[in-house]
Predict the 3D structure of the following.
Amino acid sequence: MKTVIQVLLCAVIGFVVAILMLNNFTIDLMEYAEVIAITLIGIIIILLGVSLKLYWEVKKLYNTDAKGDEEDEVDLLIYKKFADYSFLVQSSIVLSVLVLCTTVITLQSIVLTIIAIATMIVSYLFTIFMTNLIQLVYPERNIPNLSDSKYAEKLLKISD
């Protein structure tokens, strides 16, 4: 039953889109490019704020003294928060690139372009924090430091 409803819903959406395209329905995105860029920048800032909160929660949970079953629950919570952190940081990087491309292609103000570049840099810094955090989340793995001269080679060895 669920599949039938999904197929019908997709058919209706496809029909509406096809009719609109056949009737030359167009949207001028140039009018809305600034609003889209500002909205995406707001979303990026929210994602980075939540990521920062998750980063501190993982560090706090790592320093928590737990015994027995409670230790397993803390480890599970650390893994979940780290996965959420990773997802949010990667999403903010993708959205930052999208905003940068949108502002450059649509010739928006230089301020929006600079903000997009800044969000991309901050997102990249959060990725660096993620590599430091992964050493706490997976202590059983010998993950090399970023400052190591043979970082890529050592990382490849432990990946196997």
About this structure: Helices lie at 2-22, 29-62, 69-105, 110-137, 151-159.
